[in-house]
Amino acid sequence: MAVSNKPIVWGPFAAGGTVTAFLTPALVLLTLLAAFGHAPDLFAYERMHAFAAHWLVKAVIACVVFVSLWSAAHRLRITFYDLGVRADTLVAAIVYAGALAGTVASVLYLARI
Amino acid sequence: MSRKPYVRPMTTEWIFRHSRYARYMLRESSCLFIAGWTLMLVWGLKQLAEGPAAWEAFLQGLTSPASIFFQLLTLGFASYHSITWFNLTPKALPVQLGEEFLPDGAISGAHFAAWAVVSIAILFLAGAF
Q: Which end of chain B is flanked by fewer CB atoms within 10 Å, N or C?
């Protein structure tokens, strides 16, 4: 049987597509409210810091960041192919590395909260 | 001995051949905005870790016209991603009941309802209202 790494790549894409579909619009609304001077209560430094200091919240944030970036990276890779860029291996390496770098950065910052 | 394989030339002109191709590209480009906003979130985590002054600077940065423009675009594109994603759920998760399949509208409808509940819950728990 041929060995394929497709499920490894595709699994987080599907998870990320679902997570971003459910969460991202509401989360963007929160930052938009803050941008227009109606910051939600959670955006006060003490509250946000206490919220993000919980290990479970940290784990959830790290997972959300990972699947969001990964699914975006996967879509970007496919889009490059659709637009005629045939260097798929190179494109895949760059976009997935970017998604992993963003995830690692979020984990490092969360560890300092 | 090596032969040169024929590589069919490919242009980006196909996008404009049909409106559904353009909508497809519009949907796919949502990834740029979702990725950009997520990286902004990661930046916010860095600022939160650095202390109250850095966090205030992050919140201040959100209010710049460029940031608001980006966030509004992200809201539009992210919502478009959600709508197209949930519209596809009957294809991805068909539910068979005996001989029959659950109608498509029931599956996507359940997802849209759950999306509404989750969104309201996030806004409420964050103290937006």
A: N
CATH of the domain at A95: 1.20.1300.10
Cα-Cα-Cα-Cα torsion A73, A93, B11, B26, nearest 10 degrees, comes to: 0
A105/B12 touch (CB, cutoff 8 Å), yes or no = no
| Structural domain for A42, as ranges | 6-112
Give the count of domains, chain A.
Answer: 1
Is B82 in CB contact (< 8 Å) with chain A? yes
Q: Which domains does chain B show, CATH number per domain?
A: 13-125 (1.20.1300.10)
| Three-class secondary structure of residue B101 per DSSP | strand
Residue A47: name the closest of B57, B55, B63, B64 by CA: B55
Q: Do the Cβ atoms of A30 and B126 come closer than 8 Å?
A: yes
Instruction: Kindly report, residue by residue over A75-112, the tens digit of the pLDDT.
Output: 999 999 999 888 999 999 999 999 999 999 999 999 99
- The ipTM, to two decimals, is 0.94
Q: What angle do CA B74, B18, B79 make, to 5 degrees?
A: 20
One-letter amino acid of A72: A
Which residue, among A13, A30, A31, A88, would best test binding to B if mutated, counting the most B CBs under 10 Å from its CB? Answer: A31
| Cα gap B62→A27, rounded to integer Å | 13
Query: CB distance B127–A40 less than 8 Å?
Result: yes
Nearest CB to A112: which of B7, B49, B74? Answer: B49
